[in-house]
Design a protein that fits this description.
The protein starts with 15 loop residues before the first helix and ends with a helix. The longest helix has 27 residues. Strands 1, 2, 8, 9, 10, 11, 19 and 20 form an eight-stranded mixed beta sheet that branches. The protein is of the alpha/beta class.
Length: 554
């Protein structure tokens, strides 16, 4: 039991397959009702797809587990209806500080540019996120969650996956056109199918202590190397909701995990850090080792792997749950097109390729962070300490300080789904880039990303939307009638577009600046808010060719 949170207990309901002694069939089955599995199910359900979720438990995650949710993950959560409760309940922050001994040697700002709806990070215990996701899932009539339904075997052929499920009332069998494995780092499904996951386990251990206390520390990330209260090791401090503070203590590989978790060993460490006068209570304690590894590919015939089932990284950099949520953002629209017969199943190969690339990027950054935090030799430690000493005075050394490069979205610049530029552009919004947010006048919530739907969209820029000709407006509107519909969105400084086209007013000029928009510029963006193509002039044939390329129909 936690002092600040009461665990919900979700009802188990006897499945109809057990009651009626029959097999079942579902187009999509998701195994695992953690943040990644629920995000996947909600995304598909919002697009009109029926989804069944199976989970072997009947509550949310035990302990705070994942804590930091990055700006891009929050934008995905916004799209599936959970971003606002997470931000409202969590602790928003942008600034991180790194200390060597007692001196601050480096700090960073995750959101140095103004004009974005979401902060760089929100700290929120994972059980709250899961609770919000379950609540959202229950609002969708085509999404069913079955708690206390444990998958005990999986087989597949070229047309379906066959799943055996155990419940308190007996076992049953179902088949699925597509099975999403979101069943965590140990992934029973991965093991059932005899699939490998390769990588590296780091020879170190860390103690997580969630502490309830009232403190006036700012809502920032603080990381210490060799602090006076924990010599020759590192410590990390984060604030969470409900006055819960996450403290991570590096222990070393030889530490005994069971001994280190005992209150009589944890409390002295915390007192050494906070001082004897600071009142606190232990909320949750765990000891972990960390690893960086991934599967060779994430799609295996009719089974698709997401989140920790597909890849794992050390926790420094908040790349675990954030990358898992981005997996679902990449996969859901592609799978929906395949289910609807609008794209070939080979489109799912691009899910694996793009997210393997992202996983490799995360693993690289996570490994570098871990090597810096836990140097493996005296030479490495001497180099690390020299960098920290120099960072106080020299900018070049600050760039080398690595207490965890924090989660950012992957730039899919080499994806074959992109249409390469044929025109000259400035700025960062190249094909494959995740979209930048920007303030707008009007729209759903005053933000560009808030008005992006889960479909392909064409952003067309003009100074005065009212000057768009009826012929051009008709051409733009007709894109929505294509087999893979494209919603045209007019971005303008003023005016309203004809033909009922959605008009977003770039009142502050941020969209024009960030996207290098000029009169007549057009951007094609994917359903997961990555740029697919861009042109200096609208050409319906080029737009349709780019859509075909981005959906595997070229």
């Amino acid at each position: 039991m936690l002092k600040t949170y009461t665990y919900p207990k979700f009802d188990y309901v006897c499945p109809p397959e057990v009651r009626e002694q029959r097999n079942g069939h579902y187009p999509v089955v998701v195994v695992g009702a953690g943040p990644v599995g629920l995000a996947m199910a909600i995304d598909l359900a919002q697009q009109g797809q029926s989804v069944l979720v199976l989970d072997n438990d009947d509550t949310v995650s035990i302990g705070s587990r994942g804590v930091c949710y990055a700006k891009r993950a929050l934008e995905v959560l916004d799209r599936i209806g959970c971003g606002t409760p997470c931000v409202d309940k969590g602790v928003s922050w942008n600034v991180g500080r790194t200390f060597f001994g007692e001196k601050e040697v480096f700090n960073f700002n995750l959101r140095p540019q103004e004009g974005h709806q979401r902060p760089g990070m929100v700290n929120l215990q994972q059980y709250y996120l899961e609770e919000f996701l379950v609540a959202r899932a229950r609002q969708l009539p085509n999404l069913e969650i079955r708690f206390k339904n444990n998958v005990i075997s999986v087989e597949q052929d070229d047309s379906k996956a066959t799943v055996r499920v155990e419940t308190p009332d007996g076992a049953y069998t179902l088949t699925a056109d597509w099975l999403i494995a979101a069943d965590g780092a140990r992934s029973p499904i991965r093991n059932m199918l005899g699939l490998d996951i390769d990588g590296k386990i780091f020879m170190d251990r860390f103690l997580i202590a969630d502490v309830v206390m009232k403190a006036d520390y700012p809502a920032e990330r603080w990381f210490w190397f060799d602090p006076p209260f924990h010599r020759n090791q590192s410590v990390l401090l984060h604030k969470q909701a409900d006055n819960v503070w996450r403290i991570d203590f590096q222990l070393g590989w030889n530490a005994d995990p069971e001994e280190e978790k005992k209150p009589e060993n944890v409390i002295p460490r915390i007192k050494a850090m906070l001082g004897d006068d600071r009142e606190f209570e232990l909320e949750w304690v765990s000891v972990y080792t960390f690893q960086c590894r991934r599967m060779g590919r994430f799609n295996h015939n009719r089974v698709l792997f997401v989140g920790d089932a597909a890849h794992q990284v050390s926790p420094f950099g908040a790349r675990g749950a954030n990358s898992g949520i981005q997996d679902t953002d990449n996969l859901a629209w592609k799978l929906k097109l395949v289910l609807d017969g609008k794209a070939p199943a080979s489109l799912l190969d691009s899910y694996s390729a793009e997210r393997c690339y992202a996983a490799d990027e995360n693993i690289m950054n996570s490994t570098r962070s871990t090597d810096f935090i836990t140097p493996k030799s005296n030479v490495s430690k001497a180099f690390r300490n020299a960098v920290l000493e120099l960072a106080q005075d020299y900018p070049f050394a600050r760039a080398l300080v690595n207490s965890g490069r924090l989660s950012v979205p992957s730039w899919l610049v080499d994806s074959p789904l992109n249409t390469p530029d044929s025109d000259s552009f400035a700025g960062n919004m190249i094909p494959g880039a995740p979209m930048d947010d920007a303030p707008i006048a009007g729209g759903r919530n005053g933000w560009l990303l808030g008005d992006m739907d889960t479909q392909f969209q064409l952003l067309y820029y003009v100074t005065d939307a009212s000057q768009i000709s009826a012929e051009l407006a008709q051409q733009l509107a007709s894109l929505a009638q294509d087999r893979i519909g494209v919603r045209a969105v007019v971005v303008a400084q003023k005016g309203t577009a004809p033909q009922g086209l959605l008009t977003l007013i770039d009142a502050q000029g941020a969209i024009a600046q960030r996207y290098d928009m000029q009169e007549g510029t057009a951007y094609l963006v994917r359903p997961d808010q990555h740029v697919a193509a861009r042109w200096r002039a609208f050409d319906a044939a080029k737009v349709r060719a780019a859509v075909a390329r981005a959906t595997g129909n070229a």
